[in-house]
Every structure is written in C-alpha cells, then in structure tokens.
Design brief:
Helices cover 69% and strands 3% of the residues. It is mainly alpha-helical and 350 residues long. Strand 1 (78-80) and strand 2 (85-87) form a beta hairpin.
Length: 350
C-alpha cells in the first residue's frame, strides 16, 4: 500500500505541474497581458506603452521563466527605477537596503500567491475566505445528497423492476436531467418571488455567508443536492441490482436467511464499492460546479470568485483558483483509489 500511495503521489505531482503550466500558459498569452496592462493603466495605451508596462511588471520574461518564478523555484524578477527597486518579491518601491534584505524566491511554494487586481487584496486571503464559504456549502450539500441518494439507490435496487424501483429511478433521472440553472430559477420563482411565488423563503444567500439560516441557505443547497443526488442514486441502484443477482446472494436465500439480513449483511457493503468512487468524485464537481448556483443566488464563494477573476482578467487569482482546483481533484482521486482498494478485497489481496 505504501508503494502504491508513493507511486500515485508521484503521478499526481507530475499531473499537477502539467495542468498548472497549461493554465499558466493560457492566462499569460499576449492578448490577456495586453488587456491586463490597459485595465491597470489606460485603455488608450499605445503598443509601446503596453510593452513598457509589461516589462516593468515582469510579464515580458520568457514563459518558462515566469512559470518558475510563479512556482518559486526561480528568483523573482527585479527592476531598478529612479525611485528605487521593484520586483516580484518587493511590495511597492524599495530602497537599496530594503532590496538587499528582500527574499529572492517568492512563489506558490513559499506561500506567496500574488496580488489580486480585481479585489485589491492578497490572493491567499481571498481564496481562503471564499473557499471557506464554498466548503460550508459543500458540507451541507453532502449531508443531504449522499444519504438520500444511497437510500434511494438501495431501495430501488433491492427489487429490480418493482413499482418502487420504477418510481425512484424515474425521479432520479428527472433530477439528473434538470440542470442547476433551471431548477434554481424555478425555486426562486416559486418559493421566493413576491409577485407569483409562495414566499416561503426570505433573505438571500449573500446574507447566509455571515448568518446562514434555513430561509436564506436551503434553496442553493437543495439546487445542488438534487442534481448530484440522481446520479449517485442511479449508480447505487445499478450496483445494488448487480449484487442482488450474485451467486452468494442466491445461496443465502436458499439457506433461509431473511431478506433484511441479506441486504444489510451481505449485499450492501459490496454494492457501495462503485458508489464510493462516484461520491468522492463529487468533491471536485462541487468545488467547480457551484459556479452557476453561486452566481445565481449571489453566494460569494469559490465559484463566484472564479467568475469574477475570469471576467476581470485577474491572472494571479485565476492561477490560484486553478491550483486549488487541481489539488482538490487529485487528492480526492487518491482517496478514492485508496478507499476502493480497502473496500474491494480482490484488489487488496492481489
């Protein structure tokens, strides 16, 4: 197991480097840099002024060099001006003494995530705060989505072809086939609108960031949970149906074991092997898939920050969001693989 984890960790590291370099390359293309220069300077800047701004702010370096500086494995860029020294590792303008004491390496590995041009704040502060908001939203979604989906899937798969199976399977397909932006709009129109709605829920998801209550936080949680619930339920139902037709289940029935004990003691654990992987894959989907819901309900979390960074060409913030997303995806996949090995004795023995 230790060798397996070590090998997968090495693959994860290489994958993370490749993915982050691709994102870094795309965000640092010249049209994006030109737009950034004109946004920070003047939209009527000439080409020479744009080139001068990019050079004075370290964007004119070769792509590989900039990527190394962003990671923190290469020394940060420095420029000497009439007022003093500027650079990646320097805040504002530094004197010769301050420049000599400044750090040489300042990148992701050193905990320096850069400065947001959209929010005028440290990227690490913004990401941690918004990630906390989305993390609380994800926790509430998982507490509703996973148990409900497993119960629906097990109930539908216990007796294949029954009325219960057909009803629950139809409901699961409907929830999966309805995108979040459709169900979210319907929920807002039906339950919160002051003109034609029922007005059951008051407040907005924006206020839920400081004081989450049932009235201002349940609708975004329900919108996300319904969409993911159907997919997990269908996978659980398919796995449960396959297990219930296995030979050892038939043997247990012939021995006179009650149906209740067959489901709980024999079928359930094996039926949850495949859904476990699906559930773990919901974490990266929740982290990046909440973009629509957070924008729709104006909940300022991780997805909302991604939209703001992309819309305002905030390169440093976009890169930070990509790093967090890549790490979450890779870590959840590693946990999924380890859990799958423990749940499946055939893989563990081999």
């Amino acid at each position: 197991m230790g060798l397996f984890i070590l090998r997968r960790s090495g693959v994860m590291l290489l994958t993370a480097l490749c993915l982050t370099f691709i994102v870094f390359f795309l965000t640092n293309l010249y049209p994006n840099l030109e737009k950034l220069a004109k946004t920070q300077g003047n939209f009527r800047m000439s080409d020479e002024a744009v080139a001068s701004w990019l050079d004075s702010n370290g964007y004119a370096e070769p792509m590989v060099v900039k990527y190394g500086q962003w990671l923190g494995v290469l020394p940060g860029w420095t420029r000497e001006t009439e007022d003093g020294f500027t650079g990646r590792c320097i805040t504002g303008t530094a004197t010769a003494e301050e420049f000599a004491e400044a750090s040489t390496f300042c990148g992701i590995l050193q905990g320096d995530w850069g400065y947001s041009t959209r929010f005028k704040d440290e990227v690490s502060t913004i990401v941690s705060e918004r990630l906390g908001n989305t993390g609380f939203l994800m926790l509430c979604v998982l507490l509703i989505m996973v148990p409900s989906a497993l119960i629906i899937g097990v109930l539908a798969g216990m007796r294949e072809g029954s009325a219960t199976d057909r009803s629950l399977s139809t409901a699961s397909i409907l929830t999966t086939a309805t995108p979040e932006y459709v169900s979210g709009v319907i929920f807002i129109a039906v339950f919160t609108s002051s003109t034609v709605g029922l007005k059951w829920f008051k407040g907005t998801a924006t206020s839920a960031m400081d004081n989450p209550t049932f009235e201002n936080f349940f609708l975004p949680v329900l919108t996300i949970a319904l969409y993911g619930m159907g997919y997990i339920a269908r996978m659980t139902r398919a796995s449960m149906t396959e297990v219930m037709t296995a030979q050892y289940i038939r043997t247990a029935r012939l021995k006179g074991v009650s149906f209740h004990n067959i489901v709980l003691k024999h079928a359930l654990r094996n039926a949850l092997i495949a859904p476990f992987t699906v559930i773990m894959l919901q974490f990266p989907w929740l982290l990046n898939g909440v973009v629509i819901v957070e924008t729709l309900f104006n909940y300022k979390g991780f997805g909302w920050v991604l939209v703001e960074a992309a819309g305002n060409n905030d390169i440093e913030l976009l890169l930070a969001v990509s790093v967090v997303s890549v790490v979450v995806v890779l870590v959840t996949q590693l946990i999924s693989d380890i859990g799958y090995v423990y749940l499946n004795p055939r893989i563990r023995i081999s």
